[in-house]
Amino acid sequence: MKRLALLTFISTVAFAADAPVLIQNATILTITNGTVKGSILLQDGKIAAIGDKVMAPAGAVVIDGAGKYVMPGIIDCHSHIMAEAINEGSVSVSSMVGIPDVLNPEDIAIYRALAGGVTSANILHGSANSIGGKTIVMKMRWGKDAEEMKFEGAMPGIKFALGENPKRAGQAAGRGGGGGAAPGTGGRYPATRMGVEDVIREAFNDAVAYKANWDLYNAKAAKGDVAIPPARDLKLEPLVEVLEGKRLVHAHCYRQDEILMLLHVADDYHFKIRTLQHVLEGYKVAKEIQERGTGASTFSDWWAYKIEANDAIPYNAAILVRKGVLTSLNSDDAELMRHLDKEAAKTVKYGGLTETEALSLITINPAKQLMIDKKVGSLEVGKDADVLLYDGHPLSNFSKVTKVWIDGHEYFDLDKDVEGRPAKESEKKALITKAAAEQRANGGGRGGMNNATGLATTPQGVPQQ
Amino acid sequence: MKSLFLFLMPAALIAQATGAAGARDDSFVLKGATVHTMAGAEIQNGTVIVRAGKIIGVGKNLAVPKDLKVIDGKGLQVYPGMIDAGTEVGLIEINAVRESEDVTEIGKFNPQLVALTAVNPSSEHIPVTRFNGITTVATMPEGTVIGGQVSLIHMDGWTTDEMGVKPRAGLQLRFPSIALPGGRGGGGGNPDADPTSPLAAARSFTNLKQAYDKEISELNAFFEDAHRYKLAKDAKAVGFKPDLKLDAMIPVIEGKEPILVTARREREIRDAIAWSDKQKVKIILIDAAEAYKVTKEIKDHNIPVILGPSLALPLGEDSDYDQAYKTPAALQKAGIQFSFATLTGGANLASRNLPYQVGQAVAFGLSHDDAIKAVTKNAADIWGVGDQIGTVEEGKWADLLVVDGDPLEAQSSIKMLFIKGKPVDLDNKQKDLYEKYLNRP
């Protein structure tokens, strides 16, 4: 089915330079410069003009935005879509692996996220490890290959994880024995929050020593002295990048004690935690987070799905904002990812954020957290034309995204999606008819289809080929 | 928090809550609000008169009984309390903690189990759920086949007795299905798995079909047992021995109690309908994601449908991205009686998000009025309590939500909530933590 879905949208893959797009008479929510009633021009992949009146350049597509709203593309600071695998669970420090190596550009979740207004997402490793794998920021350029979807110039990152998830792999050795350990992990260390801290400290001890070896070598080499380079360590290299400020740390966490622990570890090793992810008890230590300039990326209202989420409150984002923490809302989920706008609306009720503050949680704030705010996150002249058109206010539950542009190219259009459905349906029918005919020709009867692979099978379910 | 609650309550309500004026705390007049009765046109500047928990008058310019306290509803909107037509609120506190879960019992056939028995009136989920205007939920046990009896419960009460609206509202049945492992997005199963592996063989259509046939015949045998049992009981047969399981089946086979059938895909829905015809039982479909493919049969059989969350991924990788958003409008168009369930049990125990799930359906074509009806009147009617709750009408319990805007919008706030006429505490653990930590030095 994957290929079928792709075929439908293949027309978006190859395109020449996009015609300029001028949206007129719209309510334009710039996020950073108030609301403008007027026009916005997308040209050469950038936002070229915003104002009461903007002249349409030659060949421009003009859209009447009367009654409609324009806002910047949504940025999800925590997602796992496109990732073919997310947890290298066999070790508790897996910094040698990375999500950039397992990206699937045909994941239908990309298109669905687009339809919900997401234009960029931080794709993370899972949370089974105290120090997990490398992360990457992607643009939802549906139809392109994985390489072309990478957000140009975005800082690379790395996932850390605290609390229950990294502990779980150690549960076989802990009280209650078994149940949680991933296959092949054999109850590996750590099994407690104390152990998680130790694992991270040990890793940075190693990284500091490794960096010192390289610094020594580089200094000698620079002077022209004879020097032998140290052996490369693929596990420690990303941690050295963290120490040098070249790789952002995104740390999965829940409880206030573990949050404070990680902040102390980072203090001691002189690096920064860029974002605390989930950070459901962040509101309890907002002061400590704010003092370090660390960001927080949380859920709107998830709670009670495990013990460490028991004190989660939907007011978390609002408290963090009020205490001066750079805060975003994320999805961590292919479904939630499709309505981050509706999640943002909840912060108006829970904690009284203004509409702009609420929308900032899914636009400019995550852009700043990912250090891509020079290019995206608000509607400003010169920024990438990652733009959404809504049929009503984005914070209303009765509104929906009708068009999405990335780099000025249209990647989603609700009307075109709907118009394309009959063709998709008949294409599907044709494919099924063809497959059934082939199967009959191969002697496979009714019920003889091995569902997982499509291979013809005998009635006993044994493949024939 | 009781003291804080009182502190935050309007003065008129305090008098009610404390009984300072000597009046009952479930008797009052609400004046000046716009009343959306869901049983007729909205009433501007309306009056709702409540005595002993029941609505005794709704209208415009009604004479106000002198002995009743008057609550000013000016500028506010009054709706019937919302009903989550399928959830696990009260039966589960924390998903990952087995000890806090009383949803799933061991065994395939457990019609004798009643959800209300295991509802924890002190669950933190109850005040959190009602905070957004949900006054009643259908809380469901869940099993591999028959999980037990669904209970309609109020989101207020000192005890389970006080919470119960209808303890045996329906029999939960997960209809046997041939759950083929789909591809990515299709759920369950890795398309790249080795087709020769024992797992793949076990999941072959042939094997799954055998398991399905076996489960169907067990289900039918169980119903046959119930019929024989009823005959023996009615005949007062010699040596008749009461059986709790089969006894619980009698109202079901008599067609007095509906079966809540979980059937997601088209094939399961069609199977369930055909099966209910054969068994001559009354069914309600729940979580019927593909009901939109079977509208004619559902309508012809007059079967009510309880939809799962609208904010849900499509079932198939090639399904329309907005399928779950637009299914409610499709059912409405087909004239099917339907309501909504949050089903919770998932990651975020989100019964409180019921109004926003419904709002998404409005964005994709369901009329606002039909959306509200779905979570009030329809839900009450489907669950057989339409004579007690679901509309603002004389003779019904005064389950009222008083809101400063549209109850389906996340930005609106519930200002007052009444369950059986009693003002309900809108405080909860989360709000307490908010106030505590917002003020941390």
Question: Quick one: CATH superfamily of the largest domain in chain A?
Answer: Metal-dependent hydrolases
Number of helices of chain B: 13
Strand content of chain A: 15-25%
In total, how many domains does the architecture of chain A comprise? 2
Low-confidence parts of chain A: 1-14, 173-179, 445-465
**In the CATH hierarchy, what is the architecture of the largest domain in chain B at level 2?**
Alpha-Beta Barrel
Mean pLDDT of chain B: 90
Per the CATH scheme, the topology name of the largest domain in chain B is TIM Barrel
Question: Please, could you describe this protein's structure?
Answer:
The complex is a heterodimer of chains A (465) and B (441). By secondary structure, chain A is of the alpha/beta class. Chain A contains 14 helices and 16 strands. In chain A, helix 5 packs across helix 6 (237-243) and helix 5 (193-223) runs parallel beside helix 7 (256-268). Chain A starts with a helix and ends in a 24-residue tail after the last helix. Chain B has 13 helices and 16 strands. In chain B, helix 3 (125-130) links the parallel strand 6 and strand 7 (134-139). The longest helix of chain B has 30 residues, at 205-234. The model of chain B is unreliable at 1-22 and 182-192 (pLDDT under 50). The chains are: A alpha/beta (465), B alpha/beta (441).
